[in-house]
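Changelog note: in this version the structure field was regenerated for every chain. One regenerated record is shown below for reference.
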Amino acid sequence: MSLLLSLDTSTTVCSVALHRDGTLLGSYELFTERTSAAMLTTLINNVVQQTGNELHQLDAIAVAKGPGSYTGLRIGVSTAKGLCFALDKPLVAINTLAAMTEQVRDFFPVDYTLCPMLDARRMEVYCAFYNQQGQELDVTSAQIIDENSFHNWLTSGPVVFFGDGAAKCKHLLDKSPKAMFPDVVVQPSARTVGALATLAFNSGQFEDISTFEPFYLKDFMTTQPRKPVV
C-alpha cells in the first residue's frame, strides 16, 4: 500500500494530486499566473483532508523535477523537501516531460514518436523524445527551433509535438507531413507525476533529500538593470 502526494509547479500551472497504489484519489489544478507560491500549501491541505487522509499518513512526496520555470521548480521542490523533512518521508522526483508524455501516450499508435515541449522563451524549448510505451529515446535538452529542427526524427516516422512549446513552434514544424499537433495544449500535471511516482516508489527510486536540486537544464537568466538617466 502506498499513499503518495505529488506536486507539479514546473510552469504557471500549480498542480497537486494524491494517489493510493497508483489510483488517483483527488487533485487540484490552478491555471493562473503566479499561483504556486501563494496557493500550493493550501491545495496540498485541501487534497489531503478532502480525501479523508492526514499528512502523517503519506508514504512519500513526489515532485516534478523539471525542466521548466526556474521559479516554479524552486517553489515545488522546496515545498516537497520541506514536507519530507517535517514528516520524515522519502522524496520521489519525476521528469516533467515524462509526466506530460504519460498524459497522451495511450492515444497514439505504437509507431508514433512523442515529443513533449515546454516554452523556454523566444524560439527555444525544453523537449525530449519518447516512444508510445513512455520510454525515453533521447535525452531531455534545450533546443532553438527553426524549420530544419528534428529533420532526422521526422524522416523516420510520425512525431507528435505537444505542450506549450509545441504550440509556439507549430508554424515552423508543421511543414512536414509527419509532424502532428494535438488540438489541445497539454499542460504539466501532478496527476501523471503521481502515476509515474508510484512505479518509482515501488522500485525504491528515492532522492537524497539534502542534496536534491531541480533539473533546471540551463542557467537562470536575468536582465541587467538599466542605468538611471541623469
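Spot check on this record: The beta strands are 3-8, 14-20, 23-30, 60-66, 91-95, 113-119, 124-130, 136-144, 159-162, 179-180. The radius of gyration is 18 Å.
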